[in-house]
């Protein structure tokens, strides 16, 4: 007939989390009810593709081994929005017209002007992420000529890096 809010209490039973809800007291014989429940569960990032709930209807007045029981499996979809930010320091670089690359030199200034590229990967949520792969393609050759001489690659925040081509081949 009408809608009522359920009174529910969470507790732990035999190492599992249980939520007990009082549906009606007293309830008339032959009564039919429909219950819509909304559950909010956190920390599901490592739960896999689904979570299963065991639902059981029990009566305090007439315990019976045939109490209705059902398993409900709900798919889990984690959501997180990633954002990549990048800067070049300095933002603009102009080589002098009389500058020439000096082959075989081990001096940094003979290989060009130092430019540092910084990339930051941010998780905007709402979920946490793991196992993220970021691939950056840096043009280092123009035909057979060196376009950018790649000196080093560094990371912060517990990330692993692999790189190609070989960094600093002339050991500048």
What does this structure look like?
Helices cover 0% and strands 31% of the residues. The chain is mainly β and 172 residues long. It has a two-stranded antiparallel sheet with strand order 1-2. A two-stranded antiparallel sheet has the order 3-4. The protein has a two-stranded antiparallel ribbon with strand order 5-6. It starts with 6 loop residues before the first strand and ends in a 26-residue tail after the last strand. 0% of the residues are buried.
Order of helices and strands: EEEEEEEE
C-alpha Rg (nearest Å) = 31 Å
Report the span from N to C terminus. 82 Å
Within the largest sheet, what's the order of strands?
A: 1-2
Number of helices: 0
Structural classification: mainly beta
Largest sheet: 2 strands, antiparallel
Range of strand content = 25-35%
DSSP helix fraction = under 10%
Quick one: how many beta strands? 8
Flag low-confidence runs.
none
- The domain count comes to 2
Indicate the mean pLDDT.
80
> Based on CA inertia axes, which overall geometry fits?
rod-shaped
Q: Top keywords for this entry?
A:
single chain; 8 strands; two-stranded antiparallel sheet; 172 residues; two-stranded antiparallel ribbon; mainly beta; 2 domains
Task: Describe the protein's topology.
Elements: E1 7-13, E2 16-22, E3 50-56, E4 69-75, E5 80-89, E6 116-126, E7 141-142, E8 145-146
Antiparallel strand pairs: 1-2, 3-4, 5-6, 7-8
């Amino acid at each position: 007939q009408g809608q009522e809010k359920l009174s529910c209490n969470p507790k732990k039973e035999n190492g599992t989390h249980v939520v007990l809800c009082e549906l009606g007291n007293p309830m008339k014989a032959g009564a039919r009810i429909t219950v819509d429940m909304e559950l909010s569960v956190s920390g599901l990032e490592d739960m896999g593709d689904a979570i299963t709930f065991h639902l059981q209807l029990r009566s305090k007045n007439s315990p019976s081994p045939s109490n209705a029981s059902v398993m409900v499996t709900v798919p889990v979809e984690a959501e997180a929005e990633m954002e990549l930010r990048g800067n070049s320091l300095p933002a603009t670089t102009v080589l002098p017209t009389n500058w020439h690359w000096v082959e075989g030199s081990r001096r940094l200034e003979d290989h060009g002007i130092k430019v540092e590229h910084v990339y930051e990967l941010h998780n905007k949520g709402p979920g946490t992420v793991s196992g993220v792969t970021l691939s950056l393609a840096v043009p280092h050759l123009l035909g057979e000529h060196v376009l950018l001489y790649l000196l080093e690659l560094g990371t912060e925040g517990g990330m692993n890096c692999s790189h190609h081509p070989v960094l600093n081949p002339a050991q500048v």
